[in-house]
Amino acid sequence: MIYVDIKKRIIELTKQINQANYDYHTLDQPKISDQSYDKLLKELVELENAYPEYQFEDSPTQKIGGVILSSFQKVKHQIPMMSLSNVFDENELRSFDERIKKVVSTFSYITELKIDGLAVSLLYEKGLFVRAATRGNGSIGEDVTHNVKTIKSLPLKLNEPIDIEVRGEIYMPHKSFKMLNEERLNEGETLFANPRNAAAGTIRQLDSKVVSKRNLDLFVYTIVNQSNYADTQEKALEYLSKLGFKVNSNYQKVFGIESLIETINQYDIIRKRLPYDTDGVVIKVNEFSLYEEIGFTAKFPKWATAYKFQAERVETILKDITFQVGRTGVITPVAELEPVLISGSMVARATLHNEDYIKHKDIRIHDTVLVHKAGEIIPEVIEVVLNKRTHQEPFVMIDKCPICQGEVVRKEGEADHYCVNPDCPGKSMYGLIHFSSRQAMDIDTLGEKIVETLHDLGYLNKISDIYHLKEYKEALKDLPGFGDKKIYTLLKAIEESKKQNFDRLIFGLGIKHVGSKVAKTLTKHYPTIDKLMHANLEDLQSIPEIGPMIAQSVVAYFKNESNLVLIHELINLGLNMNSEQEEVIDSPFTNKIIVLTGKLEHFSRDEVTELLEKYGAKVTSSVSSKTDLVIYGEEAGSKLTKANELKIKVMDEKAFKETIDGLH
Ligand code: IVH
């Protein structure tokens, strides 16, 4: 492809992908398959890498993230970001309506869902996205442009080249929230309490790649200086949609208080089926011309209010506060409740998060408490019903581990307490469950319950004990439910797990911050235990996916004496401590950096890549001075041009096939 064609192709791809993003993320109506989308995006990434001068401001590749900041810049809001007054029942809503009717007589309302996330202000110049800022204290917020850019439904370019500032709500859909917390659980990190906290925590991440993976989303609901663009909120919402923003479609125009009340009751039904959290209905006078007359207080506009839904919250008794010791030693207080039915399931336990949470809400054992499900998922104690309190004692955080009685510490700047005893059996029990779990060593007959039983009996304390369990074969027969067959399958599964992949073993060890993906990366770079144990901080951090936190955690793990003892025991027991490496066959491709381009007739891309890797080549996606060879098929484009420009060796498919055939 010649230079002009490349620019054209980049423009075309940018347009096609932006349209696909809009169809998928804003309209919820995808028109092309995921594979076609991935193919287009891959092509664009490659072209932009090769020709960065043609990367456009609205390039969808910006959604992938990649900017790492050390802090956020402050942003002054030219027009302050106000909040809303609240009403909690029909009477308060009627009073709100009366107050407005005292000032104006003919008007309508627009009702919108109140999305439970965090407010953001988005600035566009000549139709191009330039800045996103959080609300902060209302007058000064933080510049979160790089993070907001990763939100797929955010238009980087509007359908009109106008200057405009709009505001909306960033939120985390239930699905993303669930996935994020599952991942955090796997990595031994504390969980986010609800989708709003998760969204707020994510938007303040300094690494936009992390943000990009967390799948935040955005609804836009307001135009700053709205009367310059429309005369009613209804038209403003229509205009926002037309510009390309994702606008929540559940808005309604309503006349009079009776219809308003009816509409709100309907919202309380539909909101339960939505895949994101809402905490009320925002009611706004529709006609902008009336806003001045109705006026503002120091904090809120008087022409709008938020009707807050009663989340399904249920009263029950807090029977006790117990403490759970996690795999990393983190101690989580847990509310033991008189069982109650909440949003369709029985709840007997709820998280109390940490010491600060309990103290802030002054939660005490024997209190009557209100419980709900955060994000419709996690049971949580929200508050104490104070008028039902009798003579309860204030909560005191434990200073000894509930399992090993060892020292408990709270690290500076953290809300969590940790048991610092490396041999704490509490930690070890969760460690054992983790080790044998499906994602780790996958010893499927050694489930949670059995580990608990065998741990309580003292047969399992540390990971290596699993492989000594066969010595207790006779004793196991005395346990209820342990027949010959069960013991045989259990011991067989344990023995077979010795052959399990090396990365699963590394994940199974429960090194802090080493999830299954990180374990795969580590074992790819350090294919034997010996190499991994001796990796230093610098080496580890030179791997793109490994940041300082993971690197430090890995080094610390292999410095710890009892961990080293464990590793040697596992080596002696015969566990696989090697990434299976295919033997490299010597060939003209060995140790070469190779790029594929164009349509191949005889092979799929994956087949060629696999073949080349078998012969010890590295296949990369873009051509640079480091490339040794470009293999090309029909309709080869910019990569072949660039290879020729850089005088890199090229080979057509026919020659490639002949060479390969000659090697077999
Ligand atoms: S309008 C003058 N509309 O609720 C304030 N706010 O308590 C104009 N929110 O800070 C806000 N959904 O973060 C508006 N459809 C919606 C909303 C909404 C959620 C949030 C927003 C605001 C807070 C007010």
Please provide a written account of the structure.
By secondary structure, the protein is an alpha+beta fold. It folds into 6 domains: 2-64, Helix Hairpins; 76-308, DNA ligase/mRNA capping enzyme (D-amino Acid Aminotransferase, Chain A, domain 1); 314-410, Beta Barrel (OB fold (Dihydrolipoamide Acetyltransferase, E2P)); 425-497, 5' to 3' exonuclease, C-terminal subdomain (DNA polymerase, domain 1), CATH 1.10.150.20; 502-572, DNA polymerase, domain 1; 593-663, Rossmann fold (3-Layer(aba) Sandwich), CATH 3.40.50. It has 24 helices and 22 strands. The strands form 5 sheets. Strands 12, 13, 14, 15, 16, 17 and 18 form a 7-stranded antiparallel β-sheet that branches. Strand 15 and strand 16 (378-384) form a beta hairpin. Helix 1 (3-26) packs antiparallel against helix 2 (34-50), helix 12 runs antiparallel to helix 13 and helix 16 packs across helix 17. The relative contact order is 0.07. The model has no long low-confidence stretch (mean pLDDT 90). Bound molecules: 2-(butylsulfanyl)adenosine. Residues 82-84, 112, 114-115, 119, 169, 221-222, 282, 301, 306 line the site of 2-(butylsulfanyl)adenosine (IVH).
Q: Any idea of the CATH class of the largest domain?
A: Alpha Beta
Judging from the principal axes of the Cα atoms, what is the shape?
A: flat
CATH architecture descriptor of the largest domain = 2-Layer Sandwich
Q: Total domains, how many?
A: 6
SS field, number of helical segments: 24
Quote the CATH topology of the largest domain.
D-amino Acid Aminotransferase, Chain A, domain 1
Which cofactor or ligand species appear? 2-(butylsulfanyl)adenosine
By DSSP, the count of extended strands is 22
Portion in beta strands: 15-25%
Which blocks of ≥5 consecutive residues have pLDDT under 50? none
Kindly report the name of the CATH homologous superfamily of the largest domain: DNA ligase/mRNA capping enzyme
Chain-averaged pLDDT: 90
| Radius of gyration from CA coordinates | 30 Å
What is the end-to-end distance?
Answer: 35 Å
- Outline the biggest β-sheet: 7 strands, antiparallel
Structural class, by secondary structure, is alpha+beta
Fraction of helical residues: 25-40%
